[in-house]
Amino acid sequence: SSYDTGGHAHFLLKEIHEQPTSVERTLSGRVDERFSTAHLGGLNMDAREARAFTRVKILGCGSAYYSGELGAQLIEELARIPAHAEPASEFRYRNPVIEADTLYIAVSQSGETYDTLAAVQEIKRKGGRVLGVVNTVGSAIARECDGGMYLHAGPEISVASTKAFTSTSIAFALIALHLGRVRDLSPADGRRICAGLKAIPDQIREILAQEKEIAELAGKYADHPGMMFVGRVRGWPVAREGAQKLKEVSYVHAEAYPASELKHGPLALIGPDLPTVAVVPDDELLEKNLTTLGEIRARRGPVLMVGHTRPDPKLAEDAILVPRNEPELDPILLGIPLQLFAYYAAVALERDVDKPRNLAKSVTVE
Ligand code: G6P
How does the annotation summarize its subunit structure (predicted)? Predict the structure, then answer.
């Protein structure tokens, strides 16, 4: 059942392992291969309405916000609509301008996060249209929204979100595909994304099969006082969520930075005591990322690379490789090993993995 650890040491590990099937549930009935699009009846929006938006604004807190950043990237790439994510907790307090031609999307696993709910209510008060990407059916945020998508990821018990994060990213890929196909995304590109989505569950299984190696790496890096996480463009939200996961469950200080910004400040921190986890997909930014790794190594900073091809050992002494999907969808897979990395770092440090200190699963107060 969802409410016992099913033989796993912790709910967190169980939920990481559930992802091939929780992703299948998020995808189920929604990939329309015939017309190379996504079938999303719950959006309550016809093609003409879906074409009319000139901007997308995504709101959530914590991991939901980071998955929103990944979602914004997907929507901008596939649908070519300017898209941006913002913490709902900030948005609700800054008297935001609500625009009639912006599509607002609220993200929440629990559907009960008060800051996100308050943001939705503020948008609605000002006449904006809000969709929900929510896991818990019938929750407060789901009820308040004008339509949306349920993740169907199943109950998530561990405070640190894993399967809900991944399913939210899948939901955004479907929304981006749908918005793309009512605009300028070609049928061929739509077909490519449909096939990529369908391949993800088995590719997650391949990544989970590397659990033992990832656990060893986590044990090796866990005794450093802090870690840097870097990524560029598609890799950036992955780095942010990877750092978030590590600090939540292991209490190791983790800072995420765009790889491109390292030289504008945090490079001063780099040295033998501060390892870097670098998210480096084999995309058009590969060379740029490898240059950054060279800059880190020149300061004797240890590097663990997560990517597609084994790097020159001079640039990264350790690497975790994931299977390649379509470039737009690769970030979803690159995030999976970082969940195992955080989990095993927390285990090595004997932390209270499922209930980290000072945190609650859903924050229903201001
Ligand atoms: C809390 C949890 C986080 C979670 C965030 C948003 O802060 O500790 O793990 O990402 O709430 O939760 P939601 O249920 O809205 O996705």
Answer: Homodimer.
Give distance in angstroms: CA of 282 to centre of ligand 1. 31
Tell me how far the alpha carbon of residue 58 lies from the centroid of ligand 1, in angstroms: 15
Least trusted range by pLDDT, from 45-49, 134-138, 185-189: 45-49
**Which of 110, 114, 165, 248 gets mutated to test ligand 1 (max ligand atoms within 8 A of its CB)?**
110
User: What does the alpha-carbon distance between residue 257 and residue 226 come to, in Å, rounded to a whole number?
Assistant: 14
- 266 vs 160, 224, 226, 263, CA distance in Å? 27, 17, 13, 7
Residue 120 pLDDT:
97
Q: Atom 3 in ligand 1: which residue has the minimum CA distance?
A: 62
Judged against a pLDDT cut of 90, whether residue 196 lies above it is answered with: yes
User: Among the atoms of ligand 1, which is closest to the Cα of residue 164?
Assistant: 16
Q: At a CB cut-off of 8 Å and minimum separation 6, what does 4 contact?
A: none
CA of 161 to the centre of ligand 1 (A): 7
Name the pTM for this structure: 0.96
Does the annotation mark 361 as catalytic? yes
Q: Atom 4 of ligand 1 has which residue's CA nearest to it?
A: 62
Q: What is the pLDDT of residues 239-297, one digit of tens each?
A: 999 999 999 999 999 999 999 999 898 899 999 999 999 999 999 999 999 999 999 99
Side chain identity, residue 341: F
CA distances from residue 305 to 291, 308, 312, 317 in whole angstroms, order as listed: 13, 9, 11, 8
CA nearest to 172, candidates 10, 332, 9, 16: 332
